Amino acid sequence: VQLVESGGGLVQPGESLRLSCAASGFTFSSYGMSWYRQAPGKERELVARITSGGGSTNYGNSVKGRFTISRDNAKNTVYLQMSSLKPEDTAVYFCNAQGQGLGGPRIFWGQGTQVTVSS
After folding, report:
1. Contact present, 61 and 67 (Cβ < 8 Å)
2. HSE-CB of 115 using CA atoms within 13 angstroms
3. When comparing pLDDT for 103 and 4, which is higher?
4. How would you class 57 by CB atoms within 10 Å of its CB: exposed for 0-12, middle for 13-18, buried for 19 or more?
């Protein structure tokens, strides 16, 4: 199982960035996918979540109206479009997969990608 994030980097406040998470090793279309983030000295927090079929999403309060999560089940990839970025969005962003396996619930994490918002 692999979740590989990409697209992070250094941007200025107000700019946009799109993160991608490429999944392999499991049935991607059967798993709910999420983006979490963790800033230095803070706990990991949920940024956005999307259901397995993509029909439902929800967002953390701090990113509502600015971030959009989407997925392409044909490409086994989930995206996070981030707009109007703020310095407080600076964090490591992690991709997360949650679903059911034969033995029970399964949760997978990516290695993270750094997003830095600074002028």
Report:
1. no
2. 32
3. 4
4. middle
- Label residue 103 by pLDDT band (50, 70, 90): confident
Q: Which of 47, 9, 29, 36 is nearest to 110 (CA)?
A: 36
The enclosing H or E element of 40 equals none
**pLDDT value of residue 72:** 98
Which backbone phi and psi does 103 adopt, to 5 degrees? -95, 0
d(C-alpha 87, C-alpha 92), whole Å: 13
* Cβ proximity of 81 and 57 under 8 Å: no
Other C-beta atoms lying within 10 Å of the C-beta of residue 71 = 23
* pLDDT interval class at 79 (50, 70, 90): very high
Mean pLDDT of 7-18: 98
* Position 117, amino acid: V
Structure tokens, 77: 């990839």
